Amino acid sequence: MDTTLATFEQDVITASTLAPVLVDFWAPWCGPCKSLGPMLEKLEAEAAGKWKLVKVNVDENQELAAHFQVRSIPHVVAFADGQPVDQFIGVLPEGQLREFIERLLPEGADAARLDAQTALAEGRRDDAYEALQAALAYDPGFDEARMDRIELLLEDHRIDEARNEVDLLSPKTTQGIDARFNAIKTRLDAVDAAADLPPTDALEAKVAAAPDDLEARFDLASALIARRKYAQALEHLLAIVQRDRSFRDDIGRKTMLSVFDLAAHQPELVSQWRRKLSASLF
Question: Does 203 share its domain with 277?
């Protein structure tokens, strides 16, 4: 696929968090490019999704070429996890090209986690569960894969299974400052709290009758988080921040940050509420 400055972040940076991306800087007048391009396309087709090829026409995207200091083409830059990790200039023989690509591909637990992400993106949830189980069989201490599994279980309302997986996370994750874990904990805490709370409509009536009752607002926000109604929850959490930053050790702001992570699949929502929170703080 072709990319431009406007789509580079999505096509390359974001995409490379799921699988390696090779960016081929080329031009229509470049003879060697006409040899390298078809080889890359052939190998990408063979790889069946294990890595992705993205092409940049340097004549049409001079700013991108300048940013990556492309002075001679073809110039290929490899990305993984959102960062450039390797590169080469010119045309490599097919054997060396295969070796270059092979070094980029994840193995073992990493490969199984990638399979899970691919399966999930294609709507194959059962396959995603199996692949994550395989990743954890390779490496039981692979907390990122375990949190993938926990998040999937939470999405499917398999709360007790999610709690069991949380117990298997390493102390470095559960006792450190890990945004993903904090988001997971916020969701589980909200589920626990919601079980002991009055119905949502009763909480809404309580807040309407006493808008400055911050405990009632936080209870309502917790109930909404448990039901994954993040926009409504954020509205009440922001009201807490605006009324009293010190309430329960700034719990309104802290919980908003965790909800941002929970709602990461809704970037427009998160961006909107981040701006509102920032405006309230500054």
Answer: yes
Domain total of the chain: 3
In a domain, 214, yes or no: yes
| Each residue's pLDDT tens digit, 99-124 | 998 888 777 888 888 888 888 888 89
Query: Which of residues 104, 139, 154 is at a domain's end?
Result: 104
3-state percent helix, strand, coil for the chain, nearest multiple of 5: 65, 10, 30
Q: What is the pLDDT of residues 24-41, one digit of tens each?
A: 999 999 999 999 999 999
Report the CATH number that the domain containing residue 160 is assigned in CATH: 1.25.40
108, containing H or E segment:
helix 108-121
Q: Look up the domain containing 58 and give its range.
A: 8-104
In a shared domain, residues 274 and 206 = yes
Q: Is the pTM of this model over 0.70?
A: no
Structure tokens at 66: 């300048």
Q: Which residues of 112-132 are buried (b: 16+ CB within 10 A; e: fewer)?
A: bbbbbbbbbeeeeeeebbebb
Closest CA to 52 of 4, 16, 25: 16
Which of 13, 18, 30, 197 is catalytic? The answer is 30
Q: Are residues 94 and 154 in the same domain?
A: no
Of the residues 12, 33, 184, 237, only one is catalytic, namely 33
30 is catalytic: yes
What is the number of helices (H) and of strands (E) in the chain? Answer: 15, 4
